[in-house]
Task: inverse folding
């Protein structure tokens, strides 16, 4: 029986994208493919379909980042690594062994994250000795302790990476505040589908402004499902701003 991936993409999935290739990025450092951990893939089969989709787009390495949130997704480093091992084994027996698979996490800036930092708990980072830690915030409410958490991360030897800042409405109309965040040493990660207006017109405008200002350090697909990879293929790859962001000195290829 054909997989859902094959039904969804058809024979075109086996061919590289003609317009713009994402292969120069090498690595996607933000996705939710590990099965059964959050609002991303629910099963190994779904994970494998998403692996195939991202491989067909040119990626050769995936750093998967399940949510860690005190209220909803109480994932632990051990549990995330266990899910990674299972997916690596499944990928190897399904002819996907050439795709390099690693894990980190997307930490939600809440009181539980603050407790982890105060307790000195090890965080799931990526980038080897660079120790990049991906974190997100509420989309609407600006965290009162944002600067404190950034300082704690830096003091603990981590390099903070703010996930998809273009999606936080509290930055909309306050671009200078986002500039200050980056000036204070926080790397900024853009969601590629923001360039196609997938999330909202306002997120698209902020994303474009970030690209124009050279304020993008990393890009990620933030893949949760095949709708995200299909949007990448049919819309984002045709975006003028995708070409612009790929011309920036992004860190993806060094991961």
Result:
């Amino acid at each position: 029986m054909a997989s859902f991936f094959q039904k969804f993409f058809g024979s075109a999935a086996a061919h590289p994208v003609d317009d713009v290739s994402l292969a120069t990025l090498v690595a996607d450092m933000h996705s939710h493919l590990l099965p059964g951990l959050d609002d991303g893939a629910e099963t190994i089969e779904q994970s494998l379909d998403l692996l195939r989709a991202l491989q067909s787009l040119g990626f050769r390495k995936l750093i998967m980042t399940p949510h860690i949130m005190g209220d909803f997704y109480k994932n632990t480093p051990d549990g995330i690594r266990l899910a990674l091992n299972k997916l690596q084994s499944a990928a190897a027996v399904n002819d996907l062994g050439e795709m390099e698979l690693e894990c980190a996490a997307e930490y939600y800036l809440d009181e539980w994250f603050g407790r982890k930092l105060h307790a000195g708990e090890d965080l799931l980072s990526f980038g080897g000795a660079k120790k990049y830690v991906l974190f997100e915030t509420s989309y609407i409410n600006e965290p009162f302790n944002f600067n404190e958490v950034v300082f704690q991360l830096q003091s603990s030897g981590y390099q903070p990476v703010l996930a998809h800042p273009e999606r936080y409405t509290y930055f909309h109309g306050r671009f200078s505040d986002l500039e200050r965040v980056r000036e204070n040493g926080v790397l900024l990660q853009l969601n590629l589908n923001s360039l196609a207006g997938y999330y909202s017109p306002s997120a698209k405008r902020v994303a474009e402004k970030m690209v124009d200002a050279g304020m993008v350090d990393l890009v990620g697909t933030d893949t949760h499902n095949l709708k995200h990879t299909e949007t990448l293929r049919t819309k984002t790859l045709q975006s003028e701003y995708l070409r612009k962001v790929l011309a920036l000195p992004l860190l993806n290829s060094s991961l």
